[in-house]
Design brief:
The protein has a 9-stranded mixed sheet with strand order 4-7-10-13-16-19-22-24-25. It has 255 residues and is of the alpha/beta class. The chain has 4 helices and 25 strands. The longest helix is centred in the N-terminal third of the chain and has 14 residues.
Length: 255
């Protein structure tokens, strides 16, 4: 609250915020409705109840018992799930009915599989490994992770359009794939409130290698067998079989 010189009191103005912040602070929505939308989308109350039970029983349960219960209970949450998945402790799963898993997928401790919107999707192939504290977020977009992909710890893979990781791609720790920029435009509108500039997503070909702490921006295509050196900022396409390094990254050789 603010106090005017005359001593009267008026409500404080809402700060500028992103569209997502505005949606989840909408006063017309109850706290329960906001939680339900975030956790399971428009799924039924029965599904929400099962989601809550599975999280309560085994999300942070340690040891063989926790591992076994998650392997037993979690597959029923997803749109599809192959054989012998493995989920670590504290894995965050949002809107699981829009997530499909292949066989023998490993999601390590405290990773996040986050889908926003019922038209969004996350598809993970067979034998994929997702490292600790890594976040994969399809925020109204679509993410497809091919068979055999290995994603290191503390990575962030997020999009409002599309990300495709080809078969047996290696993404090293602390990498960020898919970020975009807020649109330029009316200077009277705070930057945080502007819509994101969508450039078509990110596509990474099979058997590519993204080095540690790399940043790959929206709109970039990286060809098959290409290598992105550690700490690189990739703003432009990288051809198949090329080696690119630097800030911004440039091609310095071939594999």
């Amino acid at each position: 609250m603010t106090i005017e010189e005359e001593g009267s009191v008026k409500p404080a103005m809402k700060p500028a915020m992103t569209r997502q912040q505005a949606e989840f602070s909408d006063p017309s929505k109850s706290a329960f409705a906001v939680y339900r939308e975030l956790a399971v989308g428009d799924a039924s109350l029965v599904f929400l109840s099962w989601y809550e039970i599975s999280q309560l029983l085994c999300s942070n349960l340690s040891g063989l018992l926790g591992f076994g219960l998650r392997t037993l209970l979690y597959p029923s949450l997803f749109a599809a799930c192959g054989k012998r998945p493995a989920f670590g402790r504290g894995v965050m799963i949002r809107n699981p009915k829009c997530i499909s898993l292949g066989s023998k997928v490993l999601v390590d401790d405290y990773a996040a599989l986050d889908v926003r919107g019922n038209d969004a999707s996350l598809s993970i192939g067979d034998h994929v490994s997702i490292g600790r504290f890594t976040t994969i977020a399809a925020k109204g977009g679509h993410i497809k992770i091919g068979n055999g992909v290995n994603i290191g710890s503390y990575c962030r893979i997020a999009t409002q359009s599309s990300i495709v990781l080809g078969e047996s791609t290696l993404v090293a720790a602390y990498s960020y794939i898919g970020p975009g920029n807020h649109q330029p435009g009316d200077e009277s509108m705070p930057l945080i409130s502007r819509e994101m500039e969508i450039k078509g997503g990110v596509s990474i070909g099979a058997h590519a290698w993204v080095g540690a702490q790399s940043l790959i921006l929206d709109g970039v295509t990286i060809g098959e067998r290409a290598i992105v050196g550690a700490h690189s900022l990739v703003k432009r396409d990288v051809p198949a079989g090329a080696v690119a390094i630097g800030v911004p990254a440039r091609v310095v050789g071939t594999v």
